[in-house]
Amino acid sequence: MTELIPTINEIIKYGLQPNLKVNDKEKLLEQQLVKIYKFYFDIEYTFDEANYPDFDKSQLPDIRHNVATNFEHFGLYKTVLDINDISNQKDNGIGGAIDDLSDIITDLLQIKWRIENNSWADGLWYFQLIFHGHTRQHILDLLNYMKQKK
């Protein structure tokens, strides 16, 4: 897990800084997203009973804007609302790659903040919580989008 914070840093930079000049940006992003996904299965921690302050999202820059400047070719995509309903060909939804990456970055920023300001255990607990219910789907959707758009 020593690579967790450096991996988070490689992803969050696209939401913290606009117009980054990075070679093979999409390939590097894809690699880092896969690393984060794998980390979820390696999490081991002892629950921290301390009562810590919450993360303040109001201090964040305009992540969505920065992501849009860094991945200007990211767009919308169609999703299936119920993947198990094979006979239903009509109920689809719309997703957005910029929104996916913005949400992933916001989640990772909170994980990082909790590790650095609260405790390692609190950060890993939050990673497990938010990844299972939120981040994981955004990563899967974004990776699928990136594969399909090639």
What can you tell me about this protein's structure?
The structure is a single chain. The chain has 150 residues and is mainly alpha-helical. The protein has one domain (4-149): Protein of unknown function DUF5063 (Four Helix Bundle (Hemerythrin (Met), subunit A), Up-down Bundle), CATH 1.20.120. The protein has five helices and two strands. It has helices at 4-16, 25-42, 63-70, 97-117, 120-149; strands at residues 76-80, 92-96. The chain has a two-stranded antiparallel sheet with strand order 1-2. Helix 3 packs across helix 4 (97-117). The protein is globular, with a radius of gyration of 16 Å. The two termini are 31 Å apart. The mean pLDDT is 94.
Shape: globular
Query: How is the biggest beta sheet arranged?
Result: 2 strands, antiparallel
Spell out the helices and strands N to C.
HHHEEHH
- Helix/strand/pairing class, anyone? mainly alpha
List the strand order in the largest sheet. 1-2
